[in-house]
Amino acid sequence: MKALARAAIVVCCAATVPLAGQESHRGRIRDYGVVPGVLPAGPENAITDVDGVHVGHTTVRSAPTINTGVTAILPHSGNLFADKVPAAIFVANGFGKLTGISQVQELGTLETPIILTGTLSVPRAADALISYMLALPGNEEVRSVNPVVGETNDGYLSDIRARPINQDHVLDAIRGARRGAVEEGSVGAGTGTVAFGFKGGIGTASRRLPAQLGGWTVGALVQTNFGGVLQIAGAPVGVKLGQHYLRSQLGAPPQGALETPDGSCMIVVATDAPIDAANLERLALRAFMGMARTGASGSNGSGDYVIAFSTHAGLRQGEVGGQRPRTAPLPTASLSPLFLAAIEAAEEAIYNSLFAATATNGARGPIEALPIDRTLEILREHGLRE
Questions:
Q1: Angle, helices 122-135/167-175, rounded to nearest 10 degrees
Q2: Within a domain: residue 386?
Q3: What residues have CB less than 8 Å from 250, skipping those under 6 apart?
Q4: What domain count does the chain have?
Q5: Among 108, 221, 374, 384, which lies 20 to 30 A Cα-Cα from 7?
Q6: Strand partners for 25
Q7: What are phi and psi of 131, to 5 degrees?
Q8: pTM for the complete prediction?
Q9: Is residue 380 included in any domain, yes or no?
Q10: Which residue numbers are catalytic?
Q11: What residues make up the domain containing 74?
Q12: Are 102 and 220 in contact (CB under 8 A)?
């Protein structure tokens, strides 16, 4: 297993080679003149536009059977156990293995980075995350820690039973987490994912409210691995491309694994607005409205979760946070603009995960990337692009 991991780390430094017929250059949806929603994006149009948020990836590849990885999201760069942030988790469909959910729901705080990975690697990632937290200066007397690890099943493109993720992969993702632009597509926890029958992956986006609405920022990061009937800004892209859930039951030739609605979607929502845990759960729910806009079918076998947190210093708890002046949470009646921001950020993050992902040969066969040229033609036909 150690030899496999070493080989994978070397391979992950190389770009994925697109399959025949796929564009070698891929970008985000806005790079092609398509701007979803009405609210302005932040400078990077990423979850890292939220003050304090860092993101890191470790991509693990060993062709052709291993395509997996780790993505780490840090609400701030300090000791999260000593400086906990308010948080909430909303479950749309609980067919998943999200570690740490009960304590977040009970106490309304997050005390570790958020780790995303493949399904059967969750226990190893959680163990590594515990080791990281216990080793932080100031945590020498800690006797309990609640690691939060989410997952999607990347078992089509990766030999999931091999469980190649180890402690170094998790620690590298945490220690390599940075502000600024976030790498998207077939990277980190999105290396082996499939969405709408195309290559899925990591995507991110953000929205910044106008000053008269508070000037707050909301960012989303997604790990897409689910099915349905793809829509982009309302255009029936999946139908026009001839690839979608229930296609063969409606009279078209079968597509096998490409038609499945199952999988999962992990969504992480961050904001700098002072929102308490109860209203963070309501914010998290709205992110699923963004997912619904993309044509997700919410299948029985899809584990769909949103983890939402606020980085506002005045709401933090613990040894450090408890020493700061407290800030009153925003009143419930003022949250509607933030709800729209979460919807739009999640929606665009999902599109970015598809646009940035590259075609991949995997353990059970190849998965093509979303065909950008044809997709843009469909969007042009529906008046969404000049």
A1: 60
A2: no
A3: none
A4: 1
A5: 221
A6: none
A7: -60, -40
A8: 0.93
A9: no
A10: 264, 302, 304
A11: 2-13+33-373
A12: no
List strands edge to edge, sheet with 109-110: 109-110, 85-94, 302-310, 263-271, 217-225, 202-208
Distances (CA, A) of 290 to 8, 116, 239, 294, 322: 34, 20, 19, 7, 34
Residue 5 reports pLDDT greater than 60: no
From edge to edge, which strands make up the β-sheet containing 54-62? 54-62, 66-74, 114-118, 148-152
Instruction: Specify whether the CB–CB gap between 271 and 325 falls below 8 A.
Output: no
Contact yes or no for 38/345 (Cβ under 8 A): no
| Model pLDDT, residue 4 | 35
The reply to whether 383 falls in a domain is no
Q: Is residue 356 within 8 Å of 369, Cβ to Cβ?
A: no
C-alpha angle 226-384-18 in degrees, rounded to nearest 5: 50
pLDDT band of residue 214 (cuts 50, 70, 90) is: very high
User: In what helix (H) or strand (E) does residue 55 lie, and over which residues does it extend?
Assistant: strand 54-62
Q: What value does the CA radius of gyration of the chain take, rounded to a whole number of Å?
A: 20
Q: Are 57 and 176 in contact (CB under 8 A)?
A: yes
Confidence of residue 25 (pLDDT cuts 50, 70, 90): low
Evaluate whether residue 241 is within a structural domain: yes
Retrieve residue 360's tokens.
């991949």
One DSSP character per residue, 227-275 reads: -B---BTTB-HHHHHT--TTTGGGTSPP-GGGG---EEEEEEEEE-S--
